[in-house]
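LOG
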Amino acid sequence: MTLIWRGKNGDYLAFRVEPRLITVLTFAVRLQDDFSGQRPLGRVEVSLAGLSRKPWQNLSGYYLWTDLDRTETYTVTIEAEWYLPSKETVRPTDLEKKLPVRKIILKPNPLYPFPAAATLLRGVVKQNDQPVGQATVEVTASTASTITDAQGEFVLYFKEDHSNKVEIVIKKGATVKKIEKEIMEGKTTSAGVINLT
């Protein structure tokens, strides 16, 4: 926008004034590492399904989208090198209006750089000698749970003390299998290949 101003000596001067840019936060996403409770490690890509516009990230690690329709429902897609893929549905109208933030917890995948003293249980799920991806793997009477990757591999990590026998439940569709394994605190235990039959 150009403003014209007449000086004292009668001359006309032109000034270029840039309009003020105002954006409105639609919603933000805060990612949290399920193992450490901290910000995620490594490369993380966050996007909205069906929209090419990328979010911008502030210094606190929040991913922010501005000037979107608050009445719409959005699918946040997360791809990361050390975490399982994640898709979360977000409705801005369900969030607090003054602070529209959604926390998303990311579960480490088998490639995650766990510390040496972590208590882990690793294994592979197969059916008819083929890897089974997207199978849920849970420990009975524990918060430990995960999903197998495309190669059928999984890693269960225990944030609480564990040095005993645990029951593991593997589910894929209507198929359910239970096994027992002895794990030790601060060690990695192998469950080997688990066949779903």
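LOG (cont.) second protein
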Amino acid sequence: MALLRRFRKTFLFLLAVTGVGGDCALPGVARAQGVAPEYEVKAAFLFNFTKFVEWPPAAFIDEHSQLKICVLGENPFGKTLHSLMGEEVGGRRLSLMRIESLNNLESCHVLYVSRSERDRLSQILAGVRNAPVLTVGDMPGFIDQGGMINFILEGSKVRFDINQEAAERTGIKISSRLLALAKHVKGRP
């Protein structure tokens, strides 16, 4: 829980001070063993993305269903994301799944595609193209191939681009507040 409070404080600090991203060397951010500071900040963003995204009702079995965050491929977050599980966002408890198979990707609500999956990226994104799955990555070409949010580094700052077209196609609504923080929004009128 202390780590979660630090994430919340870090995210609010990032928004207040920089307005758009995070400094990877922030003092006061807990260091999960073996996790680069970059991925601690990305984990905080990943958690907070769930607060600024609305999934269509059909994305959940019922009003008590969990919100599933899935990591496909190698897990760069270490145990950082595990500390967030059990928290509630929008009345739904978060759960974490690490997956390696391309089967049932549509059962995820947030799908983080690890860099280790770059050779299968087009296949992965095609598999969830019309499913209400928020796809997040941090590799070149992610947005152009149909991913929804892509982390980018600018020096030591973590920023992100958003593919609003891809989100809208699946019925996912991204808050205007999150869109305003993106470096680039594909599909913005």
